[in-house]
Specification:
With about 500 residues, this protein is an alpha/beta fold. The protein contains ten helices and 26 strands. Helix content is about 25%, strand content about 30%. The structure holds alpha-L-arabinofuranose (AHR).
Length: about 500
């Protein structure tokens, strides 16, 4: 098959906010406990209780922002239970995720330390569903106020002299569901009330994010924008790629049919339509696009691995996940005028994870490698392009074979990320660069020979990026051969 791509290297269309490459870590399964937190006395090498191997690998992704503590857990979480001497912290039942005991050993101080080790901005989600205005307001005071106050004193007693820098704060999570089963008007009123007491101490520019819709719940977006747009900086949107039925069977992460492949791609690409439709509603109330669309939960959601706790949402990760990640990040890049942040669910051991652990062992997933390859787009200028892609898939499940985004970084380098979503056929893609002639071109590729290949604890480096040489440059034209199910990032000096 043959296809054509024209990149306008001299036409920029806004900045790709690096926060699009954000992550999400919830108190769910082995996401926090074992995944990040092992405690200071663990035999697993750690820094103040935080796993060194995990931090070392995550650091290679330049994670810009990390969302915590949930998810559904956020609206059950009472922050005061998670500060002070660990041995006396109150225990709770994590009713939403497996009914396990949460010992609160990982709390505010520990999370903010993780962010420091990662060089990531913390994005904390507050409790609206079962919390109070006072509890939320005191959490903000505890973390960000430096003057004399009861919460400053408490923080200092707990060993932290100076306030932390906190930029992103979410007022509730999925308040239409696990966050309180609220109707949109009711939540909009609560958002208005709660956010009033989320004080921006020191005027450092606290960015307040309202709990948004999921999927195609356009009415939620309409009501929130109508009733509260002027009081928010961001409005969230959640969307998961589930090839099956959420309740009857989502499908296996590793053992799937042709049809499930097509459904996965088709459903992953559907996020673009959701961005467009929710975006149109936002445009009516906010034509300047001041309010960011914050896609703070997205990714694949499959059945848990056989034999694992159904409440822990542990799934393996194949090249199929890598393609979902690559194509989705391309869509976010291409809609960077409105999408200001996105947080894949979830960083470690949960859903579409970038890292999996098994006790002392740790591996990175194909999705991890996409984040590592795509980090070149962070804070780069989006470039205009025109793509002609063939359609593939089965009847009723047709989709574009190729997904693309392109950007120019501050040092003038042009990066183009391509995904060939077909597991059967390669594609020849003629890429024309307009506005400049690249002085040098190089590429990296992530690919496998069959569609359910992955990294395992036995073979941790089976799916890793390699040098890509299957292209020819002639002046401003680059003739590229994308193998089946591949993610390629080309870098060019201009
Ligand atoms: O990421 C898993 C869960 O999915 C989150 O806790 C919740 O917000 C969403 O429904």
């Amino acid at each position: 098959m043959e296809s054509q791509l024209i990149i306008q290297a001299d036409v920029t269309e806004g900045t790709i906010n690096k926060n699009i490459y954000g992550h999400f870590a919830e108190h769910l399964g082995r996401g926090i406990y074992e995944g990040i937190w092992v405690g200071e006395n663990s035999s697993i090498p750690n820094t103040e209780g935080i796993r060194n191997d995990v931090i070392g690998s995550l650091n290679k992704l330049n994670i810009p922002v990390l969302r915590w503590p949930g998810g559904c857990f956020a609206d059950e979480y009472h922050w005061k239970d998670g500060v002070g001497p660990r041995e006396v912290r109150k225990k709770m039942v994590n009713t939403h995720w497996g009914g396990v005991v949460e010992n609160n050993h990982f709390g505010t101080h520990e999370f903010l330390r993780v962010c420091e080790l990662l060089g990531a901005e913390p994005y904390i989600c507050g409790n609206v569903g079962s919390g109070s205005v006072q509890e939320m307001s005191e959490w903000i005071e505890y973390m960000t106020f430096n003057g004399e106050s009861p919460m400053t004193a408490k923080r200092q007693q707990n060993g932290r002299e100076q306030a932390w820098k906190l930029k992103y704060f979410g007022v509730g999570n999925e308040n239409w569901g696990c966050g309180g089963n609220m109707r949109p008007d009711y939540y909009a009123d609560l958002y208005r009330q709660y956010q009033t007491y989320v004080r921006d101490y020191g005027g450092k520019g606290l960015y307040k994010i309202a709990g948004g819709a999921h999927d195609d719940d356009y009415n939620w977006t309409e009501v929130l924008m109508r009733e509260a747009a002027s009081l928010m900086d961001g409005l969230s949107l959640h969307y998961y790629t589930i090839p099956g039925d959420f309740h009857k069977g989502k499908g296996s992460a590793v053992d799937f049919s042709d049809q499930e492949w097509h459904l996965t791609m088709k459903k992953a690409l559907h996020i673009e339509q959701l961005i467009i439709n929710h975006g149109k509603i936002m445009d009516r109330y906010d034509p300047e696009k001041r309010v960011g669309m914050i896609i703070d939960e997205w990714g694949t959601w499959f059945d848990v691995e056989p034999g694992t706790n159904p409440g822990f949402l542990f799934q393996q990760n194949t090249i199929r996940d890598a393609l979902v990640a690559g194509a989705t990040l391309n869509i976010f890049n291409n809609h960077c005028d409105r999408v200001q942040m996105a947080n894949i669910a979830q960083t470690i051991n949960v859903l579409q994870a970038v890292i999996l652990t098994e006790g002392t062992h740790m591996i990175t997933t194909p999705t991890y490698h996409v984040y590592e390859m795509y980090k070149v787009h962070q804070d780069a200028e989006k470039l205009a392009f025109h793509l002609d892609s063939p359609k593939i898939g089965e009847s009723g499940i047709g989709y574009d074979q190729v997904s693309v985004s392109a950007s120019k970084s501050v040092n003038g380098k042009v990066h183009i990320s391509y995904c060939n979503l077909d597991y059967k056929a390669g594609i020849h893609l003629l890429t024309e660069i307009r506005g400049t002639v690249p002085s040098s071109v190089e590429g990296r590729i992530l690919k496998t020979n069959s569609r359910n290949e992955m990294n395992t604890f036995e073979h941790p480096d089976h799916v890793v990026p390699r040098e890509f040489t299957n292209f020819e440059q002639e002046e401003d034209k680059i003739s590229i051969n994308l193998p089946p199910m591949s993610v390629v990032v080309m870098s060019m000096d201009t």
